[in-house]
From TrEMBL:
This is FMN dependent NADH:quinone oxidoreductase. Residues 2-197 form the Flavodoxin-like fold domain. InterPro entries: Flavodoxin_fold, Flavoprotein-like_sf, FMN-dep_NADH:Q_OxRdtase_AzoR1, NADH:quinone_OxRdtase_FMN_depd. Its cofactor is FMN.
Length: 199
């Protein structure tokens, strides 16, 4: 039995290729680990607002110095951090938007990459506080970024790998449904990505 957290960030609902790919990873994990618990976070229908001044200050304030107002402001961020700590497997479904991650996913990251909670500063530099977890990326892209001339523009996946490593998660797998904007490739892109799933 495993705890599975599936985070989705495409505005395209059930049509979304990254969401479908993420669901296929979830299904595979559940079939390998019967009785697993699944938590789904839909960042489009339930987004974290972009950081404003109050939220930024609250996020950077040590817990014992928080005001009551700041504690309330941090409730949802705290819940998101707890969900990360509970999960054994974290599946991140993301559409590539303008060579980057969807902005709703960035807002969620801004609420879970937290000093004193998911990483700490030590004399040797920052240290990730999560361990024993695996991240599975389900990315959907119009072009091809795993290889060829566009590979130099593959910013989203290395960014995600770095940010999860920063909080201590080094077990990182990537599944790509790519070429969705290329007529000769789009039809089979999702099928091919699903076939490659190995959890
Ligand atoms: C606003 C927007 C920006 C996009 N930017 C890119 C891009 O930079 N590179 C790319 O390969 N595809 C890009 N695409 C295509 C999407 O990555 C592709 O349609 C993918 O299927 C989206 O994932 P989804 O099906 O999960 O929503 C973009 C699509 C949209 C709507």
């Amino acid at each position: 039995m495993k705890n599975i957290l599936h985070v989705t960030s495409s505005p395209r609902g059930d049509e979304s290729i990254s969401t479908q790919l993420g669901r296929a990873i979830v299904s595979e994990l559940i079939s390998k680990n019967p009785g697993s618990e699944l938590v789904e976070i839909d960042l489009v229908n339930n987004p974290f607002p972009h950081l404003d001044g109050k939220q930024t200050t609250a996020l950077r304030t040590p817990t014992d110095l928080l005001t009551e107002e700041q504690k309330q402001l941090l409730e949802r961020s705290n819940e998101a951090v707890r969900q990360l700590f509970t999960a054994d497997h974290i599946i991140i479904s993301l559409p590539l938007h303008n060579f980057g991650i969807a902005s709703v996913l960035k807002s969620w990251l801004d609420n879970v990459i937290r000093a004193g909670h998911t990483f700490s500063y030590s004399s040797e530099g920052p240290k990730g506080l999560l361990s024993g977890k695996k991240v599975h990326i389900a990315i959907a892209t119009g072009g091809i970024y795993s290889d060829g001339p566009m590979a130099a523009l593959d910013f989203a996946v290395p960014y995600l790998e770095s940010i999860f490593k920063f909080i201590g998660i080094t077990d990182f797998e990537v599944y790509r449904a790519e070429g969705l904007g290329i007529p000769a490739l789009q039809e089979k892109a999702l099928e091919k990505a699903i076939e490659s799933i190995a959890v």
